[in-house]
Amino acid sequence: MQKPNKDEVKSQMNILSVPPLSLGERFEDAYEVILILDDREQFATQGSRSRKIIENIRSHFKIQIEVRRLPVGDGIWIARHKTLGSEYVLDFIVERKKIDDLRSSIRDNRYKDQKLRLVRCGLRKLIYLVEGDPNSSEAAESIKTACFTTEILEGFDVQRTSGLGDTLRKYGHLTQAIYQYYKSEFFEDNNKCSAICPPYDEFVRRCQDLEKMTVSDVFAIQLMQVPQVTEEIAMAVLDLYPTLLSLARAYSLLDGDSCAQEQMLQRQSNNAINAAASRNIFQLVWGS
């Protein structure tokens, strides 16, 4: 595999939001990076063994870990100002799925709804961590397909671990890597043209607002039941037509030209919505 050159790496990194820095201030001097785990996570709530593993990871990787109630995801990373105590959410979020839970969520469609919430939370680096061996499940093929779709078609970073201890070690490595990025030369060179990370409280409020189900949310969930429609395609449709009624009205203007109707979303989205998805959505809304 060809190694990306420095300019390409810098271009990719440049999309990430950064915490505010004063002129001449360095990230590592101003901030500490903290891994925040959701308090509903198994190892955050159970007995001494799980808590001991967390303590071991904290000590081994020399990182800070805190447990809070998160509005979305199972883990995020914050930058806390060493002097002011202000907290900013860094551009990374992780959703952890044990194999059995992933199988269940695929069956009852929580899987797509949860990923949509991750996409909408506003953080750019979406990590989907699958814990356990898919081959041990009776639904091995559907789980592998879901992982492939999540990674290749929807742009998540799918990470795989063998079990709880491996998951926490992965969190340790991720925390170190995130810290190194923010103190790296890429960050130093490019932070002036990046967006500012949201304050933690603002991030929580924004995600809680997303919990309020709207007509568009219901429409998005309906769209994701359509073959070929990923979370990104559903969001592209909503950008054009936020409700089922508005999309149906657009189709009605082309009534009688089924070819144009089938291609409408593909053309209007400049191919962000592929031909198959465009056709399938038309069949859902307008087809007999």
TrEMBL record:
One of its GO terms (cellular component) is Holliday junction resolvase complex. One of its GO terms (molecular function) is metal ion binding. It is found in: Nucleus. Its cofactor is Mg(2+). The keyword DNA damage applies. One of its GO terms (biological process) is mitotic intra-S DNA damage checkpoint signaling. Its main location: nucleus. Pfam families: ERCC4 (PF02732). Residues 34-134 form the ERCC4 domain. Its EC number is 3.1.22.-. Keywords: Cell cycle, Cell division, DNA damage, DNA recombination, DNA repair, Endonuclease, Hydrolase, Magnesium, Meiosis, Metal-binding, Mitosis, Nuclease, Nucleus. Interacts with EME1 to form a DNA structure-specific endonuclease with substrate preference for branched DNA structures with a 5'-end at the branch nick. Typical substrates include 3'-flap structures, D-loops, replication forks and nicked Holliday junctions. May be required in mitosis for the processing of stalled or collapsed replication fork intermediates. May be required in meiosis for the repair of meiosis-specific double strand breaks subsequent to single-end invasion (SEI). Belongs to the XPF family. Interacts with EME1. This is Crossover junction endonuclease MUS81. It comes from Trifolium subterraneum (Subterranean clover).
